[in-house]
Design goal:
alpha+beta; 96 residues; globular; 3 strands
């Protein structure tokens, strides 16, 4: 991907994150040649370091995985009030 395009995507994410008033906003895509179920964050805004790049999202698991599987946006304002079973919304899956 060209450097200019990466810069424009990052700038857009920063602007959108500030407009939405959220802590983190990112774009995750399938980067695996062998599995359509492995999704990684490619672009992010609001991150304090690059550890998000090690997070592997799985199709149908966690908030991002549900969004990937259903193709529908999902917004959670208060996780404790809106989600019955917090364990079903795994937020991190580290692959080292």
């Amino acid at each position: 991907m060209e450097g200019q395009l990466k810069h424009e995507i990052t700038d857009y994410l920063i602007e959108a994150r500030l407009d939405l008033g959220v802590d983190f906003l990112g774009i995750a895509l399938n980067t695996s040649a062998t599995s359509v179920k492995e999704i990684r964050w490619l672009f992010a805004s609001g991150n304090r370091n690059n550890r998000y790049q090690k997070i592997v999202l799985q199709n149908g698991k966690g908030i991002a995985g549900i969004v990937w599987k259903t193709g529908r946006a999902m917004s959670v304002q208060n996780l404790r009030e809106e989600v019955d079973d917090l364990r079903s919304f795994q937020l991190r899956s580290w692959k080292i």
